[in-house]
Amino acid sequence: MSATLGTFIKQLEPSWTIGIFENLDQAGLESSDPWNNAGTGHAALCELNYSPLGKDGKVDPAKAVTINEQFQVSRQFYSFMVQQGLIGSPKTFINPLPHMSFVIGDDHANYLRTRYEALSAQPLFATMEHSEDLAKIGEWAPLVAEGRDSGRVAASRVEGGTDVDFGSLTRQLTAYLGTTGADLHFGHRVTKLDRNSGGWSVGVKNRATKQDFTVNAKFVFVGAGGGALHLLQNSGISEAKGFGGFPVSGQFLRCTDENVIARHHAKVYGQASVGAPPMSVPHLDTRFVDGKRSLMFGPYAGFSTNFLKTGSLLDLPLSIRPHNLLPMLNVAKDNLSLVTYLVNEVVKTRSKKNESLQDYYPQAIGENWELITAGQRVQVIKKDPAKGGVLQFGTEVVTSADGTMAGLLGASPGASTAAPIMVGLLKRCFPTHFGGWESKIAEMIPSHGEKLNTNVKLLEEVTNHTNKVLELA
To answer: Over the stretch 1-40, which tens digit does the pLDDT of each residue have?
Structure first.
């Protein structure tokens, strides 16, 4: 998020001074890291939680369409950066990969058919295929079909999906900023945010030298992943009051058998367990990390009070304030099924993890998969007039009333929607500048101000262009 915002500002106002302070020794090592991030290129093509079955038995495509629109904006942003030679070859961060939903049993199959009918009628999802024929599903994803006992299964597939290495993309955007004069400070932790007459005083600690110093800024963006909540609370802005965080940790199984890895070429998403958070949806995923193909399954959710993978066990308790205590207590009361689910996941044995893998890959051999730790996700807890507090699955932009500070909380779809989220943030925080920026934004994002789902001609033009530039066709 920070690298994306910095890139937009550098394009829009080249003379503005930008400083980036990163606690770790490199950019993109926490939530953006490919082993901590699903890398789906979230476009709602396969993620079923973006298009749930309604109480009326229908699927409303609106949320899925919105998320797909957002990822189309990100794709255009990537294309601009590649075409201008500002970042490297698209193969270093994005690769074409089919997206597929796969479900087991009558109820889930009925739902997937309903979802397919609702989404495939939308121009953004017009290429979606659907089948309940195991042989056809086996053509799409052999590992899913082979060795499967009789029983009803169903799958939907979009061939034009992607896999994104957001760690690589983040590092390339950050490197670009460094070459254009931005001050990059790795191994520097932001410790304080205080208002001053010109904006903000930012307290920073150099982790290597232990030296503390202060930087003055007219505008501050807090793009610290799970660490953003503490910094926003520290700033004292009233807009951050009432927000809390619920951390969810996780693990993945990563395949070590090259023959198995070579036989799977898709992201296959299933249906979440009852009580499971959306980012715990099981998926059997091909990944491309540092140019190497890999295969992983998971995640297996867990609970840790860390807000960052490199954070502290005190992160959760230290985030509790009088203003967010009631929302957090209400969320705990209303989400007992989630707590139960997480407890069961924490105590799940390796053999049980292997059984979950075999639901999606029946012939999987557990010894050929290694267990790795995934990234931390901090779900947003916020005030709600009716319930007192709700657990929100998604992203939340928090902006001070005067527009001098903004921060981002939450998780999925997160990185995939960074470009449109940052354009929206620029409009909120720099209203007097934004009108003068729009022609440049339209150069970077040709669909700016338009909805591709209702403009089929523009959708075709944008898709063809981004596919060509990003080598996805």
So the answer is: 999 999 999 999 999 999 999 999 999 999 899 888 777 8
Query: Can you list the residues of the chain whose pLDDT is less than 70?
Result: 274-279
Q: Give the predicted TM-score (pTM) of the model.
A: 0.94
Helix (H, G, I), strand (E, B) or coil at 158: strand
Domain annotation covers residue 87:
yes
DSSP state of 266: S
| Residue (of 3, 1, 2, 4) closest to 441 by Cα position | 4
Question: What is the extent of the structural domain holding 39?
Answer: 2-186+219-469
Long-range contacts of 55-64 (CB under 8 A, 24+ apart): 57/114, 58/114, 58/118, 59/111, 59/114, 59/115, 59/117, 59/118, 59/119, 60/118, 61/118, 61/119, 61/121, 61/122, 61/125, 64/119, 64/122, 64/125
Residue tagged 């924490």 (tokens): 346
Tokens of 450: 């338009």
Determine phi and psi for 279, rounding to 5 degrees.
Answer: -75, 0
Q: Is the peptide bond before 413 cis (omega within 30 degrees of 0)?
A: yes
Q: How many independent structural domains does the chain possess?
A: 1
The verdict on residue 212 lying in a domain is no
Quick one: DSSP state of residue 160? T
Q: Tell me what pLDDT residue 39 has.
A: 79
Bridge partners of 301, per DSSP, are 250
> Of 261, 298, 244, which is closest to residue 37 (Cα–Cα)?
298
Integer Cα distance of 410 and 418 in angstroms: 12
How many helices, marked H, and strands, marked E, lie in the chain? 15, 20
Residue 276 lies in a domain: yes
* Sequence-ordered list of residues with C-beta below 8 angstroms from that of 305, at least 6 positions apart, any chain: 247, 313, 314, 315, 316, 317
Lookup: tokens for 470? 């990003």
In this structure, is residue 255 part of a structural domain?
yes
